[in-house]
Amino acid sequence: MLSSFDWIRRCATGAELLATLEYFTILPDLFDNQLDLAAPFAADADVCQRCWTYSMGWQAPESSSKKRLSPQYCQACALVMEKAAELGRTSRHSSVIWGFVNQIPRHLEAGEGFYRKHAHGWYVQDAHHFLLLLDRRNLQDWLQELALYHGSDLKGLLQIFPTTGSGRGFSMGELLCRAILHEARFAMNALRIRFFSAPHQLLRPHVRDQKGVLTFDVSDFVGLLEMASIFRTLIRPNEQQMLYELLHITKPAEKQFYWGRFLGFVSQEARDMITAWNIRQWPEPRLQFFYELFEYVEFDQHP
């Protein structure tokens, strides 16, 4: 018999995870363990090829519009896979947050307010663990929502990472288990964030940790998101790429020449920002991390 979290761990992709969380809400009876258990595993067993627990061979009723469901799955897995086929694009733009906190954030369990409007899916495991999926561009708004309702009362660790697709060599369920493995590394005396810009980084978090771009105080991380938003507003995409390439020039004379030309090319507001932030002196890991944040922030097209 599979629990709700067992079903989550069965998810191979972000799209499957989104579909599972949606069915938890709209069709909870689908996972209430009334499915037919498969016979003991054998070469000719009728076990579902996804969950490996329940009997395969379920077919949609004749009146159903879902004609593509494969008989190699049980009913729950068939419906999840069918729904997942519609959620690939949503998954690619989603962030996953696994929280280990002293209290569940306000409104999350009921799915009210911000969560009803912006979240793609959520799951509350117990009084200290939750899973949340939302559009990555809403990450800053969500963190500010936590600050508004909880202030410094909310403590623990939020691990943020992208979803994964098929053919990556590791499943969404495996990534969640990796996050859980590292969730108790810090004392629960503040709210911290561990940020992974790519799914595979959860498999070797020490690499990112050694560069100093993994763990942040929540206020520092929100501040970095705000900086990224300002940067994207004042510097156009082609200028962002020019600056990135310029900062990687290794010859001092050549770098100085192009630096002067670049500052003459951008606006006065952009020059003031670049000078105030001293971007030219940033170490490579910090620069790379800062550019990764561009995918997580909005920008004002009419500053």
Which parts are unreliable, with pLDDT below 50 for 5 consecutive residues or more? none
Strand numbers in spatial order across the main sheet: 2-3-1-4-5-6
Gyration radius over CA: 23 Å
Do you know the CATH architecture of the largest domain? 2-Layer Sandwich
How much helix, percentage-wise, in residues?
Answer: 40-55%
Largest sheet: 6 strands, mixed
Order of helices and strands: HHHHEHEEHEHEHEHHHHH
Mean pLDDT score, rounded? 90
Question: How many discrete structural domains?
Answer: 3
By secondary-structure content and strand pairing, the structural class works out as alpha+beta
Helix/strand layout:
Blueprint: H1 4-9, H2 14-26, H3 75-84, H4 88-92, E1 94-101, H5 114-118, E2 119-124, E3 129-135, H6 139-150, E4 156-162, H7 172-181, E5 191-195, H8 205-210, E6 215-217, H9 218-234, H10 237-246, H11 252-265, H12 268-277, H13 284-292
Parallel strand pairs: 4-5
Antiparallel strand pairs: 1-3, 1-4, 2-3, 5-6
Helix pairs in contact: 2-3, 10-11
Walk me through the structure.
The chain is of the alpha+beta class and 303 residues long. It folds into 3 domains: 4-88, no CATH class; 93-210, Alpha-Beta Plaits (2-Layer Sandwich), CATH 3.30.70; 232-296, no CATH class. 42% of the residues lie in helices and 12% in strands. It has a 6-stranded mixed beta sheet with strand order 2-3-1-4-5-6. The mean pLDDT is 90.
Condensed summary:
With 303 residues, the protein is α+β, with helices and mostly antiparallel strands. 42% of the residues lie in helices and 12% in strands.
